[in-house]
Write a structure and sequence with these properties.
single chain, 81% helix
């Protein structure tokens, strides 16, 4: 591997990580409060989860294509990629957070109420702490999925390791494809291992 290629791999890996981090940050900021609201609104739960499920089933390249012509949302570049990737990351975080909150034992809630805790206190001091392992499990799924799907974002000019893959396909150059695929796979495996370790540590014995 020559110095120029190594430098480009590092640069595009950092770009890829940035794209993934922004996506997950936005997805968590939307999904966790959303799950808290849905935990109190059973009627809306079905519709919101249904929409998230539908978004998850759309092929990623097709979703990028749908978003491109939309005003203020679409266009070539990172903005469209982040919006599309957020739609994929939302479901696992939303569903797992909701599962974690709803899975809190009713007796624990009743004890908290008996102690005079408000709904806000129960949420922050009881429900969310107990739901953390489930939330991390959802984040783990979303992270691995986003790292892989983000390689396709290069097709709409969003950069990242997919640049190598797009270039390699265009030139029928296997080393170029591997230069994008191998670091992306390594990134996904490392993230999965790290989050699995955190999940184990936070899970009750």
């Amino acid at each position: 591997m020559n110095g120029r290629l190594a430098s480009e791999i590092v640069s595009l890996s950092l770009e890829h990580l940035t794209l993934v981090a922004i996506t997950l940050g936005i997805a968590m900021a939307a999904a966790i409060p959303g799950a808290v609201l849905l935990a109190r609104r059973a009627a809306a739960r079905r519709w919101v989860l249904g929409f998230a499920n539908i978004a998850q089933t759309i092929p990623s390249l097709a979703l990028f294509g749908f978003l491109l012509p939309l005003p203020w949302i679409g266009g070539i570049g990172k903005r469209t990629a982040v919006i599309a990737l957020c739609l994929y990351a939302l479901l696992p975080i939303l569903r797992n957070t909701l599962t974690g909150i709803l899975g809190v034992d009713a007796g624990v809630r009743e004890s908290a109420v008996a102690m005079g805790m408000t709904r806000r206190q129960i949420l922050w001091q009881v429900e969310l702490p107990l739901a953390v392992p489930s939330i991390v499990a959802g984040l783990r799924i979303a992270t691995v999925t986003t790292i892989g799907t983000a390689t396709i974002a290069a097709f709409i000019g969003a950069g990242g390791l997919g640049v190598f893959i797009v270039r390699g396909i265009a030139m029928m150059d296997k080393p170029q494809i591997l230069a994008g695929a191998v670091p992306a796979a390594a990134m996904a495996l490392l993230a999965d291992e790290a989050l699995e370790w955190i999940e184990r540590k936070l899970s009750p014995a």
